[in-house]
Amino acid sequence: MTEAPRTYPRHVDCGAAAVAIDRMTPADQGDLVRFIAALPPEDLLFVPRDITHPKVIDAWMQALQTGHIASLTARVDGVLVGCTSIYTDRMSWSRHVGELRVLVAAGTRGQGIGRALIQECFLQALELGLAKLVAHMTTNQARAIAVFEDLGFRPEALLSGHVADRAGALHDLVILSHDVRAVAARHAAYGLGDSVAAG
Questions:
Q1: Closest CA to 86 of 76, 96, 74
Q2: Cα–Cα 20 to 30 A to 37, which of 57, 74, 176, 181?
Q3: Residue 3: what pLDDT?
Q4: Which residues touch 171 (CB under 8 Å, ≥6 apart)?
Q5: pTM for the structure as a whole
């Protein structure tokens, strides 16, 4: 079951910041490149490809147009401070599953921007007709794992030495997942509308 398309931009208060969440389009490419360039190196372990490479960014923009990736941006005073992507493969046997990636600027963490983006992605997943979201991250990203778990994600697998950083050091990868439809059904039963992300 898919949801009706959501309207954007949507505005969320995160601490002292007023955050505008919108769908990412190819027009955001320049801002996205600058945002990624400012991220700490360890943040790049959230994504399986080198998003600092121009060809990867170009492929991301093309995937937005083909529908293989759905992405959101978060801006404060017009500046890009966060983004998401939900990757899907409609030709695979896991076409009901979306792979979620979330990045937030280092200087704006702890304000709830990542949480707001993840919550919005739950609703976006329903809109896409997905039943499950998965998130991959290295085990040393404890703060991010805690946020995902607080929003109902649960560990499903641990892959030892699965990620190599730029220096060649190996990191364990944890895969977390969330049953989107089950949570949506539970919240609908309690009349909670679009508050599908918590619990």
A1: 96
A2: 176
A3: 56
A4: 45, 138, 139, 140, 161, 162, 163, 164, 165
A5: 0.85
Q: How many CA atoms lie within 13 A of 118 on its CB side?
A: 27
Domain encompassing residue 67: 10-136
The reply to whether 70 falls in a domain is: yes
**What's the whole-number average pLDDT of the chain?**
87
Pair 117, 84: CB distance under 8 Å = yes
pLDDT class for 15, splitting at 50, 70, 90?
confident
Q: How far apart are the first and last CA of the chain?
A: 20
Domain presence at residue 107: yes
* Residues 167-181 pLDDT 10s: 888 999 999 999 987
Note the pLDDT of residue 190: 53
Q: How many independent structural domains does the chain possess? A: 1
In this structure, what CATH number is given to the domain that contains residue 44? 3.40.630.30
DSSP 140-182: T-HHHHHHHHHTT-EEEEEEEEEEE-TT--EEEEEEEEEEHHH
- CA distances 54 to 49, 79, 86, 166, Å, are 11, 21, 20, 17
Tokens found for residue 128: 């896409």
User: What pLDDT is recorded for position 186?
Assistant: 62
pLDDT, one tens digit per residue, over 48-80 is: 888 999 999 999 999 999 999 999 999 999 999
**32 inside domain:** yes
